[in-house]
Description:
This protein is mainly alpha-helical.
Amino acid sequence: MTTAPMAGRAAGERATIRTAAALVGAVFLIVGILGFIPGVTSNYSAMTFLGQDSEAMLLGIFQVSILHNIVHLLFGVAGLAMARTVGGARTFLVGGGVIYLVLWLYGLLIDQESPANFVPVNTADNWLHLVLGVAMILLGLALSRRRT
């Protein structure tokens, strides 16, 4: 029995999870950059550093602030850095997914008009956070599953 095909498949799986984490990280980085571009972000002049009072809307849908954009940038950089190893890629995808599910719950539980909405988030953000959280966790688990 030869182990070469198994070793090749394992190497491919390792490359796949690393690529997935890098792509997700790159998307976060791009979203963070787009949040600072007037036109892509409507009401750009009404963007605040943080808080529910920011009226800036990425793509006219998602409420953003300077802090929100910085978080996207940092999350993107973390994803790209962690994609350098299989363990880091898995941690970024699964751990990042858990963070987004917590953020989704937070967005559901707070009054969006209160100071607790410091990120800020709106209903569209909440739905996106749910989808991102589930997708990242599923990617991290599916791509790191060991086959015998």
